[in-house]
Design brief:
Layout: H1 2-13, H2 29-119, H3 124-130, H4 135-141, H5 150-223, H6 227-254, H7 330-341, H8 360-370, H9 379-385, E1 387-389, E2 399-403, E3 412-420, E4 423-426, E5 435-438, E6 448-450
Antiparallel strand pairs: 1-6, 2-3, 3-4, 4-5
Helix pairs in contact: 1-2, 2-5, 5-6, 7-8
């Protein structure tokens, strides 16, 4: 009977929407009703499985974004450490110079005392200063300086000033050294967090893949197909989902704003790179997208003046592009791109600035440094630094950024160098070497950036 029920269920699954009567006299109305119920249950299970499969697809992408955010935090910690190291070195140099001046002032006093001894003069006050135990003792003993010659008086004053400067700079040097140690510890913590985020992401992806495989097998059973068929079906569903998201993001970024909004840099120029629009169906994204969230306007409106009691916003609004973006320096852009091409195939390195590996912002910084332009260290600060331009004005050498909030510079987690013809050159993420990829619009920031 179970085999007959399965056959009936399979037949019902293949019935057209209107259904047809079964002529088999051995099949009762109850059998048909049971079969239809089984189909309904199977359809519900299939729907639930497909929802979960969609969740697993976005879960993997979200995990990779978290890794890139952690890498950006590490890059910032590295930049802070470099600043602290420079300040500590400068403070130590200033202290060393002050020590030399103090030693010179002391040597002058010693010379004056010796000269006085040879001439039979009395330099008790100078000798008292030289034997003083500390600055306060020096000040106390210096009350008798009026009895010292004018030359000695100047030498003593110079000695006191040099000692005070040296003492002050010693405190600053110690403080700068402590700050450097703290920055180093924070950088190490950030690196550990980034590596842990990568481990967590790898584990999440592996778990999602295992669960996905099991769900696909269930789909194959429920639909009476093969695992291969369902695998291909789900791969197609994922590809179409990514394609729709990419097409929507591209349309949003390259559409000329309506009148009355900040100009997007010329309006009707061809999308992304001089007449060659970026492909709407890119290959597997090297920078994954995050689940869609309610989008905010791509062109921020001019904020009204807040009342005096309103605290300033934590993150200033993104500066919209100028009506006519500054021209690209073709020679510098070519130099930057040529340099970046020599790095193709090098590994992604946490906080890497070369020469043997790079992170995303280390690569763009190095490329433009080769062209004689100084870029900030992190992708977030690079986005704040560049001139904002619309995507319809992208030209080779421009920078493209991605973030979790297209209007918030602090959310940027990736940057790449646009090289024309709908392509970018990037250091994608841990485990993926420097490479050329199709232009991606999903999760891109509201504007691209022009250097110089």
């Amino acid at each position: 009977m179970r085999g007959a029920a399965a056959a009936i269920t399979a037949a019902v699954l293949l019935l057209p929407a209107g259904g047809v009567a079964l002529a088999d006299p051995d099949v009762s109305d109850q059998d048909v009703r049971d079969a239809r119920q089984a189909v309904t249950s199977a359809s519900s299970a299939v729907a639930s499985i497909e929802v979960r499969l969609a969740e697993l697809s976005t879960q993997a992408e979200t995990s990779q974004v978290a890794v890139q955010q952690a890498g950006e935090t590490y890059a910032q910690a590295q930049a802070d450490l470099a600043t602290a190291q420079q300040q500590a070195a400068e403070a130590a140099d200033q202290y060393d110079q002050a020590q030399e001046q103090f030693a010179s002032a002391r040597a002058t006093l010693v010379a004056i005392a010796r000269e006085a001894a040879r001439s039979g003069g009395s330099m008790d006050t100078v000798q008292a200063l030289l034997s003083a135990d500390g600055f306060e003792d020096v000040v106390a003993r210096s009350e008798a300086l009026s009895h010292v010659s004018s030359k000695a008086d100047q030498a003593v004053q110079g000695y006191l000033a040099a000692e005070q400067v040296a003492t002050t700079l010693k405190a600053k040097a110690d403080e700068a050294a402590a700050t450097q140690e703290s920055a180093a510890a924070e950088a190490q913590d950030a690196l550990d967090a980034a590596q842990q985020a990568q481990t967590d992401a790898d584990r999440a992806v592996a778990s999602a893949q295992t669960e996905r495989a099991g769900l696909i097998q269930q789909l194959a059973v429920a639909r009476n197909t093969s695992t291969e068929v369902e695998q291909a079906r789900q791969d197609q569903i994922d590809a179409e989902r990514q394609q729709r998201a990419e097409a929507a993001a591209q349309a949003e970024r390259t559409t000329t704003p309506a009148a009355g909004t900040p100009a997007a840099g010329g309006g009707s120029a061809p999308a992304a790179g001089g007449g060659s629009a970026a492909p709407s169906t890119p290959s597997t994204p090297s920078t994954p997208s995050t689940p869609s969230t309610p989008s905010t306007p791509s062109t921020p409106s001019t904020p009204s003046t807040p009342p005096a009691t309103t605290p300033p916003a934590t993150t200033p609004p993104v500066t919209p592009p100028v009506t006519t973006p500054p021209p690209v320096s073709a020679s510098k852009a070519e130099t930057a791109i040529a340099w970046a091409r020599t790095k193709l195939g090098l590994p992604y390195v946490w906080g890497g600035t070369g020469p043997n590996g790079y992170d995303c912002s280390g690569l763009t910084q190095g490329a433009w440094r080769a062209a004689g332009v100084t870029l900030n260290r992190t992708s977030r600060d690079q986005y704040r630094q560049v001139t904002k331009i619309s995507y319809s004005n992208l030209q080779p050498g421009d920078l493209v950024f991605w973030g979790t909030n297209k209007n918030d510079a602090s959310s940027v987690y990736h940057v790449a160098l646009y090289i024309g013809n709908g392509q970018i050159l990037e250091a994608p993420r841990e485990g993926v070497p420097v490479k050329i990829s199709p232009m991606r619009y999903t999760n891109s920031m509201a504007y691209a950036g022009r250097v110089g």
